[in-house]
Amino acid sequence: MKKHAEFVWLCLCIVFINNAVKAQTTKVEKIEAYMTRAHELGLFKGNILVADDGKVLYETAMGFTGASEKTPLTTQYRFHIGSIAKEFDAVALMMLKDQGKLSLDDKVSKYLPQLPAWANTITIKNLLQYTSGIPDVKWKTVKTDADDMADLMQLKKLDFEPGSSYAYNNNNVFLRRRIIEKITGITFNQFVEQKILASSGMNNSVVDPGDDVPLMARAYNKNHQQDPLTVPISGWTAVTLDDFYKWAQAIADFKLISPQSTKDILIPVAPGKQAGLGGGSMDGDKLVSHIHDGTAYNYQALLVSDAPKGRTVILLTNSKNVSLYQFNTAIQAILDGQPYTQPAKSILISFQNKLDSLTADQFIAFYNDLKKTNAAEYGFDDENSLNEIGYYLLGKNRMTDAIIVFEYNTKLFPNSWNVFDSLGEAYADKGDKQKALLNYKKSVQLNPNSQSGKDIIKKLEQPGN
């Protein structure tokens, strides 16, 4: 009788394992079909990695290594990752903080005394939060680090008092890297190579790759014009899929910096802003989410980590076309066994010039006409198309038009937490705290698992905000 029971139990275990394997296989097939369609529509050319429950389920390359489109990509190719590479200097500073070599309250002038008097008013924390007031790099004239430092030496006045406002720009990053060099006595690139990449097992990543570096994907535009590899200021790390995944794991496992230091560079200073690690959330000393996107010329990258699920989605392209977030949204839905929308062409990218010449109300009318005639070709089945347009308008400082688009999106998709989150962000940017709170609360009501939404609500409800 005992042996019979053991046999039955064994059979049940086998059935359970087989069903689990079959479910995972089905998910992989759906992801493969989705990304293949996106590639065939010309929406995605690049490399992708999907991990779930701590295991890589899907990893592939679809596209070409450069503008000639003669050599197919492989997963061994390196890509620039744009602003995500700023994570390396943010983490480097926190490593030095954890070692007692600096304080976030230290003034920039402590390490770079040659700078004008304004350096005595800016803290390292300001640089990490983009609240320093330093103006952006003069991209039209700056060609080297020395050029940028010369401009800063001539700077007479900040754009705003440090800590009083926010401006996302690369001079904050530039000074972070110079401070690291001053403290360590080695170049920033050497620090990244020796203390970060090596410690994380990222053996195939390269800082500031040149034309002679093998297996480097080259970015190019729709007209097959290839971009340069280098940018005016130095310190940009190019990664492979596997190395990028190791980086995500190093952050989630606190391999390089402490949980508190991670929190210091993960949580933005205000809703809709960027922190050193982009953005995300934590529950006590545990990472919950880590989300960051980056663009450099026609390179584009997206990292989305959901630590409790052991889930990571990485998308890398060298031929920027549409927002990578739409692919992530579908992949997350597939992994969760939820409905998802098939890939479609971007309305924003296809009709950006028209959007620039129309009011929001006029463009919504155009959107509805397009929906009648080209429903299968463009994205009308979910909120992403109008959300993308809304954020584009926000980026153009067309605040009123952005809110009109987001408001319309909530009417089309009243059960989407994401649209109310976006509308809340727009109202927060406008300074309308009441309407921001109203929409963030609606978003969290629709998605009670949105920790970032809860964090924003808590912050907005604090006195003085």
TrEMBL record:
Query: SMART domains, from UniProt?
Result: TPR
Q: Which UniProt keywords apply?
A: TPR repeat
For this protein, the record's InterPro entries field holds: AmpC-like, Beta-lactam-related, Beta-lactam/transpept-like, TPR-like_helical_dom_sf, TPR_rpt
Gene3D superfamilies (UniProt xref): DD-peptidase/beta-lactamase superfamily (3.40.710.10), Tetratricopeptide repeat domain (1.25.40.10)
Question: Tell me, what's a Pfam family for it?
Answer: Beta-lactamase
Q: List residue spans for each TPR repeat.
A: 417-450
Superkingdom of the organism of origin: Bacteria
Can you say what this protein is called?
Answer: CubicO group peptidase (Beta-lactamase class C family)
